């Protein structure tokens, strides 16, 4: 019969390394990364809403949107999803 192994039988006294302590530089970089991601999302919304507002009636009909729906979306502030 084959012996089955699990982590307890291989190294029963195995200790996991301590989680690294977060430092100020790590926290700042995380905040900068989140801020950059937010700015990119806002820029994307502005561009997409502007492009959508420029679509012709046939294209809007093809995608199933009315001019009123498009204008309502285009008039939203950039920070609102």
Q: What's the count of strands?
A: 0
Q: What is the end-to-end distance?
A: 60 Å
Cα-atom Rg, whole angstroms? 26 Å
As residue ranges, the low-confidence spans are none
Strand content: under 5%
Mean pLDDT: 84
Number of helices: 4
Structural class: mainly alpha
User: From N to C, what is the helix and strand string?
Assistant: HHHH
Largest sheet: none
Helix content: 55-70%
Write a structural description.
This protein is an all-alpha fold. The chain has a domain at 46-81. 60% of the residues lie in helices and 0% in strands. The radius of gyration is 26 Å and the shape is elongated.
Which helices and strands, and how do they pair?
Blueprint: H1 7-10, H2 24-53, H3 57-63, H4 67-74
Helix pairs in contact: 2-4
Brief sketch in words of this structure:
The chain has 81 residues and is mostly helical.
Question: Could you list some keywords that capture this structure?
Answer:
81 residues, mainly alpha, 4 helices, 60% helix, elongated
């Amino acid at each position: 019969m084959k012996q089955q192994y699990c982590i307890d039988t291989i190294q029963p006294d195995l200790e996991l390394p301590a989680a690294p302590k977060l430092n100020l530089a790590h926290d700042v970089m995380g905040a900068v990364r989140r801020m950059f991601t937010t700015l990119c999302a806002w820029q994307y919304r502005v561009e997409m809403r502007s492009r959508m507002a420029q679509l012709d009636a046939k294209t809007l009909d093809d995608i199933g949107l009315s001019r009123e729906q498009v204008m309502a979306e285009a008039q939203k502030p950039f920070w609102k999803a």
